[in-house]
Amino acid sequence: MSVNLHSPHCALWTNRSVDVDHEQWRILIVDDNADSAEALSAALDSDGCDTRVALSGVDALHAIDVWVPHVVILDITMPEHDGYATARVLRRIGRTRDAVIIAFTALGEDIVRKEGLHSGFDGYCQKGNPPTALVGLIGRLVH
């Protein structure tokens, strides 16, 4: 597999998809960098998505108590519960078992793919991509 080191990369890892039935995409962004999470949320909101932000894996689990996302965009390197641990918990909870989970991280795909697939991630998008690349990946997973 060749990796282009000059431009960030997005990839689909599974054939999971979620059926949204013409609703707004509900997207939970989980990232301990508040500025990054809020910027991504604003970009996705301007695209017509219904987004929420959680600044940790624990916050993400509280968020789904009252609001169930179609898609979870999940950073990997976070304190306490990293993205892998958070994804594994989301896969065990009935409300989010079938949600699409995308790794959104500065780490290279070769670093996160094996544990990411084992933890339940459906795709990967490296930070640094324009929001349109992430929206394109989401669009391949949401029908």
Keywords, please?
Response regulator receiver protein; 6-stranded mixed β-sheet; 143 residues; CheY-like_superfamily; Sig_transdc_resp-reg_receiver; Rossmann fold; phosphoprotein; alpha/beta
User: What overall form do the CA principal axes indicate?
Assistant: globular
Helix content: 25-40%
Largest sheet: 6 strands, mixed
With helices defined by DSSP (H or I, 4 residues minimum), what is the helix count? Answer: 5
CATH homologous superfamily assignment: Response regulator
Taken as a percent bin, the fraction of beta residues is 15-25%
**CATH class call:** Alpha Beta
List the quaternary state of the chains: single chain
Which regions are unreliable across 5 or more consecutive residues at pLDDT < 50? Answer: 1-6
Counted up, domains total: 1
- Give the neighbour order of strands across the main sheet: 1-6-5-4-2-3
Order of helices and strands: EEHEHEHEHEH
Mean pLDDT score: 91
> Radius of gyration, rounded?
14 Å
**Second-tier CATH architecture:** 3-Layer(aba) Sandwich
> Could you name the CATH topology?
Rossmann fold
Distance between the termini: 29 Å
